[in-house]
Amino acid sequence: MNRPWKLRRPAPEVVRALVQRNGVSEVIARILAARGHAGGEATARHLEASLHALNDPSDLPDLPAAAERIARAVERRERILVHGDYDVDGVTGTVLLMRLFALLGADAVWHIPHRLNDGYSFGPHSVAKARETGAKLVISVDNGTAARETIAQLAAIGVDTIVTDHHEPPLGELPRAVAIVNPKLPTSRYPFRELCGAGVAFKLAWGVAQHMSGARKVREDLKQFLVDAMAYVAVATVCDVVPLVEENRALARHGFKALEGTSNVGLRALLESCGLRETKLVAEDVGFKVGPRLNAAGRLDSAALAVELLLSTDPVRAAELAARLGALNDERRRIEAELCAHAFEQASAFADVAANPVLVLAGQEWHQGVVGIVASRVTQRFQRPSLIIGLDGERGRGSARSVAGFDVLEAMHGAKDHFVRYGGHAQAAGCEVEARAIPSVRSAMCARAKEMLDGRAHEVQALWIDSEVAFETLDESLMSHVDRLEPYGAQNEKPVLISGDVRLAEPPRVIGQDRTHLLLKLRRGQRVLKTMAFGMAARLPELQMGTPLHIVHTPRWNWFRGERSLELVLHDFRAGEAPTLG
Known about the structure:
alpha/beta; inorganic pyrophosphatase (n-terminal core); Diaminopimelate Epimerase, Chain A, domain 1; CATH 2.40.50.460; 3 domains; five-stranded parallel beta sheet; five-stranded mixed beta sheet; about 40% helix; globular
């Protein structure tokens, strides 16, 4: 699909102010302006990402009460059950609290629900696990704010619950827990509401450390624990796609440093398996290498594998578990590719966008652990919201993803009478549905979508460009400025640059196990840079030696055996005459 290119055009006075006040190059000033920066102290804090940006944990709702209850459980040797979730956020937060309790000498065990057997968050499995382990206190990680019934059942058998979560609270009454530590509660006065689940767990750990130290300044062993624990928070912050600004930015940047120098056996084995032991970590490494391995456990097997790895103290066992996660991730990629091929083929039957503004696709034995990823791929390819359903006999579970500006949950409301259950938010949602109801779901969602669009079509998403950059200036000096913008993520996206009138330095090569990527060597004058064009193998005929190319790209460092080199990642290109920028 030929995406329109649009160049961001910040006000010249804003760019000048950023250059003068913050000592950055004009290119970086344009990128910062595109992110909403105007210079001054706020921009300086963003660039510095200091630990001073971290807010006092005691400002979180109910945190002092939670810390006091945990301290009492530690003192009385009450059994504590840490109740996590099966994604990266829940796994890392669970491990963080388990390591804290080990340091404190607490009697603690953990529980992660099984994606396919137990579903998300609290449920009957939670009560059963509390009974089985003899827990007197349950602490949730990354879930629980809406678990009224289960928390009431736990209370009825004499078990207290502390909720740590970051999801939007439900309408109506909250669970009657000892404490609900969630920055998004209506009563919250915490100054930053976008922490991930592991971030909230980290704040709880910090609050417990203060309580145990009897002061805001924590004792040395607990201080070192918190510094090390930021490694878990950094992984979760990137992988849960929370905004990489303010407090999250500081947690991620310092967490990457902790991760690079970690002595944790499990984390070291995981980095080794990703080929990241000799590199300076960036958000892309965590998001595309570390996170998918941890997530693969919960998608295809049990997230317990990931927890066991991160809690491991045996290097041999840790290496075995890391290899197992790597194999699961390879299997996830194979399944994903297979399901994408089936989904793309099925989508061809609904090519009429006016008649089918939402793609509702389903298949028997489509693995329910990867339907969310497939939904993202389908939405990206066809520029339409999609609901992908994996059926197991007469019933299935599905995941929906949307395009910018379209509320897919609202479209699902149009089919509310045909779902067993559903929920989510504007850009991502999930459901359970009977196989026989799928045609009705498709019809109802498309009908509601047509009402929402009111005769309009889904817009092809423009490729927004932050700045024009001469190809020959893409060097280490420029990258020293670009590096100050890391870590990248939501609301602090990677810089997208345009360079014109470059040529192929040699014929392009098709690479990758599935032969879908291109490796290019591009040049202008004496400057030659390796360029990766992921997923663009089908565009090979457009690339001819000697033909001018205009490229939209992001520069990055490539690390190999401890050595780094500058390369580009291609987002799009045009051959021939220079394109018009919107």
